[in-house]
Amino acid sequence: MKGLPIANSMLDKAQSGIGKITTNLGFSGLPFQIYVLLAITFVLSFGRNISFPYLAIYLTSNVVKGGLGMDPSIVGFMLMVGGLTSILMLLFTGSLCDRIGRRKMMLIYIFPMILLTLSLAFISTPEEFLLRYALMGVIGAFYDPAYSAMVADLVPPNRREEIYGLSYMIANVGTVIGPLIGGALVVSTPYSTLFLITTIFVVLASLMVFFWIKETNPVGECNIVKVDRFGGVYRDKQFLLFCFLGAMTNIVYSQFYGLLSVYTEYIGLPAYEFGLLFSINGAMVVLLQIPIRKGAMRIGSTRAFIIAQSLYAAGFAYFFFARNFMQFLIGNIVLTLGEITFVPANNGFIANLAPVDKRGRYMALSGLFSGLGSSAGNFIGFGFYSVLQFKEYVWAILGGWGFLTLPGYALLHRIHKKRSNVL
């Protein structure tokens, strides 16, 4: 959920503007530029997680508490629009990697993001937020394809999965630390201050991109997301069922990044306690992803999906009963175990299912479905929360939604087992 999309570049060597960048790693380690990219990942994740876990609270909280007092249904709609703009832009930005270069793509992202992040501290109306958040979605679509393609340029195929996994882990280290700092700050400072601090980290990342990132040779193919390239993928019914179920899963899981923060404030938990939940989620991912990944590989992806979805549904449904921090912590631990089980199984399932020459298309289409599920989830979750008199029932609905997808995953398991036996 916090990772970066996998590029489809088959480039083993790259050349910067000032000289050759070797990818003959051996025992000498990684190229310097990979370390820079990983450092940028941490800086952006750390800075973002100081403020963005509290974005929904900032938008919905009473003005007296330093919030903007917006209706939750409006907030859900605006978060959905922001997500959709990013997804739609990926249809175009993926193909730009080879045309204008990876570094230029990163620069197109990083400098406007400074101004957009800073501007969030000064919004006063829903219209102002919607415009800025939609623009952030547009600009955000420039970075991930460029990052993924640059890693593929610099790292040989046999180590790419390792580096993408390392990037995912480093991003989660930022998730561990950032929310704790943000939660401590909101006790005595306005929510808007958090975005000012996040802006400082975006500036730092921009300086790292500008001074230390060199262009890699844009030869080959990055993760181009174009509708007319998916013809053969649409005929894979098993994969389409998997994509549909993934979207349904993300409708539920997306509530962790928006609605849950608003609900915990409604219950009476201070913002720093929600930040602690967020940090524990990141810490569990960092500490447990390797052993759980091995377990998921042993039982197979489709069985792992069933287990993960059961944990997701149970964790979110448990919030119906939660009234204090320890109870929310129990639900958080359960759903995080679901996340750690689902993510590696998801990547492994696609990699094994897709023909080698269509792997990028399979990854891209799966990402589009997941993004659509997350965007719709914000709208659905906040919509129910806004109209329900007893707010806790939103978790019964979302948990029930999660459990209703389990027969779909069971069907996927049967189809996959039958197909594997035939093959």
Properties at a glance:
two-stranded antiparallel ribbon; Growth Hormone, Chain: A; 2 domains; 423 residues; disordered N terminus; mainly alpha; 17 helices
Task: Chart the SSEs and their pairings.
Blueprint: E1 14-15, E2 20-21, H1 32-51, H2 55-60, H3 72-93, H4 97-100, H5 102-119, H6 126-140, H7 143-154, H8 157-185, H9 191-212, H10 237-253, H11 259-267, H12 271-299, H13 301-318, H14 325-353, H15 359-387, H16 393-404, H17 406-422
Antiparallel strand pairs: 1-2
Q: Can you give the helix content as a percent range?
A: over 70%
Low-confidence stretches: 1-28
Share of residues in strands = under 5%
Number of strands: 2
Tally of helical runs = 17
Number of domains: 2
CATH C-level of the largest domain: Mainly Alpha
Strand order of the largest sheet: 1-2
Q: What name is given to the CATH topology of the largest domain?
A: Growth Hormone, Chain: A
Shape: globular
Mean of residue pLDDT values: 83
Structural class based on helices, strands and sheet pairing: mainly alpha
Rg, Å, rounded: 21 Å
Euclidean distance between termini CA atoms: 31 Å
Annotated CATH architecture of the largest domain = Up-down Bundle
User: What is the string of helix and strand elements?
Assistant: EEHHHHHHHHHHHHHHHHH
